[in-house]
Write a structure and sequence with these properties.
Layout (H helix, E strand, L loop, with lengths): L1 H8 L5 H14 L5 H22 L6 H15 L6 H19 L27 H35 L2 H16 L9 H20 L1 H21 L3 H9 L4 E2 L4 E2 L12 E3 L4 E2 L4 E2 L6 H7 L11 E3 L4 E2 L4 E2 L4 E2 L4 E2 L4 E2 L7 E4 L4 E5 H7 L12 H11 L2
Length: about 400
């Protein structure tokens, strides 16, 4: 009796059980590190293949080995296949033909028996959940049903990436197994399928609530990307109005390039009239160094802020950094790449790291009085011709 039981275990009907054990092993070897998980799966797969080779030599395993061989033959389209697999293949061919005729809404649920005459069966279904849905309910039903899988997998994978949650890794593998099962079974008709959906949806809602900060950060990232896209196509005037809505005080006649960083407290920045701020300029309104002080003096609540004020008729060159508490007076020029750490009086030119006094605005004018080119009213073509002629 024991021998009969052992033989029965390895009949073709038990092949699904052994494949199930294989999938359980895959799930059991999941690791929070994806590379380690793939390595573990590779080991399981190799071990499974070796076991199959060893089992092939034992008579009691003939049923299982033959079943696996027939399934492989069905996939590659060569060799002997089981009668059931032959019928399944025929139904898939018939179902594919029918789907091409009624792709949008299908022929109606539980109506695949209509196709049975083509494979000499009194009653039939397509033995493939993907194709069954496409034939019975069309693309509409297919998308509605599998959108649930997409939703579940999306959130599970997101949780795996952000938290390395092993439970989510387990669920991802389990859902993938369900999808593989749909290749050989019609699962949408089973009540257990929807119980599994309820459990998975409940789990997804749990991880979504536990990751609210991550979701908020991703929403903010999306909004920032959308905001940058909108800014790119704004006119100069609209961009300045946009900045004013961020509570930056901006005077009249200003020109502000779109690659300027106004920091996390833009409302601490005041800009006068006729100011030009070029690309890469950064306004720093808080002192990041308090990070060290918080840890050193065990006071996590401290911060240090400073208002930045720019006077009238000021030019700020590319990639300038303006630190907290700085005031720049009227009629000033700040050289490219300067780091302004202290306030600058009116009518001066500063540059360098840290920024230092270079000369007065009057000296700058007098030094270049004979060098100025009067090209602002020229067209681009005229300007090009003039400059090429001057520097030839």
């Amino acid at each position: 009796m024991q021998n009969l039981a052992l033989i029965a275990l390895f009949t073709p009907l038990a092949s699904a059980l052994i494949l199930g054990i294989f999938l359980i092993l895959l799930i059991a070897t999941i690791n929070t590190n994806w590379k380690k998980t793939l390595r573990n799966w590779g080991i399981v797969l190799i071990a499974f293949i070796i076991i199959l080779i060893l089992l092939k030599s034992l008579p009691i395993f003939n049923g299982f080995v033959n079943r696996m061989t027939e399934l492989i033959n069905l996939v590659v389209g060569k060799g002997k296949i089981d009668l059931g697999d032959s019928l399944r293949k025929s139904m898939i061919e018939v179902g594919s033909t029918q789907f091409m005729k009624t792709p949008l809404f299908g022929i109606g649920f539980r109506c695949t028996y209509i196709l049975a005459g083509f494979v000499n069966m009194k009653w039939a279904y397509l033995h493939n959940n993907f194709l069954e849905l496409l034939v019975c309910g069309g693309i509409i039903a297919f998308l509605l049903y599998y959108s649930m899988y997409i939703y579940i997998i999306y959130w599970l994978v997101k949780d795996c990436k952000s938290t390395k949650n092993k439970d989510s890794l387990f669920c991802v593998t389990f859902v993938i197994c369900l999808l593989f099962n749909d290749l050989a079974a019609v699962s949408y008709e089973y009540m257990i399928t929807y119980f599994l959906f309820i459990i998975l949806f409940k789990y997804v809602e749990t991880i979504k609530k536990s990751n609210q900060d991550i979701q908020k950060g991703e929403t903010n990232l999306f909004n920032k990307i959308l905001e940058k896209f909108k800014i790119k196509f704004m006119s100069t005037d609209k961009y300045i109005d946009y900045l004013r809505h961020k509570d930056i005080k901006i005077g009249n006649g200003c020109e502000i390039y779109k690659d300027v960083v106004f920091g996390s407290e833009p409302y601490l920045i005041e800009i006068g009239d006729n100011v030009r701020i070029t690309n890469g300029v950064k306004f720093i309104t808080h002192d990041g160094g308090v990070w060290t002080l918080r840890n050193l003096y065990q006071n996590q609540n401290i911060d240090l802020f400073g208002k930045i004020k720019i006077g009238n008729n000021v030019h700020i060159g590319f990639d300038t950094i303006i630190m907290p508490g700085v005031t720049i007076g009227d009629n000033c020029i700040i050289g490219c790449g300067a780091v302004v750490t202290k306030s600058i009086p009116s009518n001066q030119i500063w540059a360098g790291v840290p920024a230092r006094y270079i000369k007065s605005i009057d000296e700058y004018y007098l030094n270049h009085q004979n060098d100025f080119d009067y090209t602002k009213n020229m067209s681009s073509a005229m300007k090009k011709e003039y400059l090429l002629d001057k520097f030839k």
